[in-house]
Q: What sequence folds into this?
């Protein structure tokens, strides 16, 4: 196994360019627009089992990672994935193909349009544009169209959001972490949206040139240079009838669990986004007789379309979850010490049982993420509580505003069972402070950090956090 290569903070692994981790090499299959058919899903399962550890991970960008591969097996693993249409041979082309699309706009009657053809055209244009090879590796584009399973709360560098307004379908072109907080650059028609997206990204590349400390994300360029500098000519600045995207009801990812979309889909989530090759193989066998598909979502779940619902015993066998209230889905963690040389704590073991300590907070809309280092890999945008490992101990932070974190406690632990009392104290304080018209998360966000830390320490020291 390879585990001693230098750590690269900005690396985005692919199939053509795998990354060394603590448990071997990691390959990332880029988001498959429109999902996987049974043959493709089976190929990934076989590659993961034959050439890797059999461990797979769904990511918050709708990608699928294979873990534990060995250098000697890279070429045959790559060849099988490429032959299945799941990978690029050229690492530079693969690196720029970061397009996340709403998973079911082709079968969602509430969607403004089916945006999968737009997403495919954009993905092709990105890899064919040599100028865009200079994009930072984490820059990605989101394409969505509202409907029953929108991507309102999913973060992206560039948002292409279709809506049905006056005069037909328009795309809102925006930059930002969510539909509600995005900076709107303007509006364009579906036939022009790919060219507009390319123009924005090319301008972003130009703005980075010559900068001593160039912005790594498009939102950083907007903050530094202003939105007008990034706005290409030809965009409509105001949509007749107002901002139809902002006027939509907020989307809810929970809707994609179990039987959903009026029976057109069946959603299965996996705690930590982790599943085994055997589970993926089982799902491939389940959809094969129906010519169905597996749609990857940014909620670390899979939507089975064109197939029958999955029986409960098979779900248990796969460790899949369809209960939206299951607290295991309200905690997330990177792989930590078990599979990453940068991790200093067993993150998933630490939080696997600790979620019960904060059950009230979690079922009230809270989300806890645990990171084995300060890279915060896989941290979802909806996380409000963050535990960051530093040399075997944790720092506790709260998200005060989108992408704005404030540290409350430091140096927690080490040792097993240290996360439980911290989360239990946090949960108890949230319950005590909660007002009549606010959630427990909102109660915590209202408390000043120093006072919150003092009260949490008191509860943990007195043993009254239950």
A:
């Amino acid at each position: 196994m390879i585990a001693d290569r230098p750590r690269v903070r900005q690396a985005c692994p692919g199939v053509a360019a795998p990354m060394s981790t603590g448990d071997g090499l990691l390959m990332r299959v880029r988001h498959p627009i429109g999902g996987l058919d049974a043959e493709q899903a089976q190929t990934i399962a076989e590659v993961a089992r034959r050439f890797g550890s059999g461990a797979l991970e769904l990511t918050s960008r709708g990608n699928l990672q294979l873990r534990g591969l060995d250098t000697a097996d890279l070429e045959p693993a790559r060849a099988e994935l490429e032959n299945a249409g799941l990978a690029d041979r050229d690492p530079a082309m693969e690196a720029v193909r970061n397009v996340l699309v709403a998973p079911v706009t082709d079968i969602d009657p509430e969607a403004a349009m089916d945006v999968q053809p737009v997403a495919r055209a954009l993905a092709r244009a990105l890899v064919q544009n040599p100028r865009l090879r200079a994009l930072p590796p984490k820059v990605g584009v989101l394409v969505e169209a509202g409907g029953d399973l929108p991507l309102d709360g999913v973060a992206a560098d560039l948002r292409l959001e279709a809506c049905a307004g006056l005069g037909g379908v328009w795309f809102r072109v925006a930059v930002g972490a969510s539909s509600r907080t995005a900076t709107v650059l303007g509006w364009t028609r579906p036939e022009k949206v790919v060219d507009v997206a390319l123009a924005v990204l090319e301008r972003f590349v130009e703005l980075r040139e010559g900068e001593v400390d160039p912005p790594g994300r498009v939102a950083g360029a907007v903050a530094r240079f202003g939105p007008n500098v990034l706005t290409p000519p030809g965009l409509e600045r105001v949509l007749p009838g107002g901002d139809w995207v902002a006027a939509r009801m907020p989307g809810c990812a929970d809707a994609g669990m179990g039987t959903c979309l009026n029976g057109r889909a069946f959603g299965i989530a996996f705690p930590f986004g982790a599943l085994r090759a055997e589970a993926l193989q089982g799902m491939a066998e389940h959809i094969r007789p129906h010519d169905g598909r597996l749609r990857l979502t940014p909620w670390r779940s899979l939507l089975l379309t064109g197939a029958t619902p999955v029986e409960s015993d098979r779900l248990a066998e796969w460790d899949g979850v369809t209960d939206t209230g299951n607290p295991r889905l309200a905690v997330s963690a990177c792989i930590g010490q078990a599979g990453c040389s940068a991790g200093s704590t067993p993150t998933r073991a630490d939080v696997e049982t600790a979620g019960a300590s904060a059950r009230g907070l979690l079922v009230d809309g809270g989300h806890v993420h645990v990171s084995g280092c300060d890279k915060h890999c896989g941290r979802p945008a909806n996380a409000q509580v963050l535990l960051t490992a530093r040399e075997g101990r944790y720092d506790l932070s709260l998200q005060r505003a989108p992408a704005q974190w404030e540290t409350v406690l430091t140096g927690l632990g080490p040792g097993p069972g240290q996360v439980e009392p911290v989360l239990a104290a946090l949960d108890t304080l949230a319950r005590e402070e909660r007002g009549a018209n606010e959630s427990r998360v909102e109660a915590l966000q209202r408390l000043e950090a120093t006072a919150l830390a003092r009260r949490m320490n008191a509860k943990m020291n007195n043993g009254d956090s239950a």
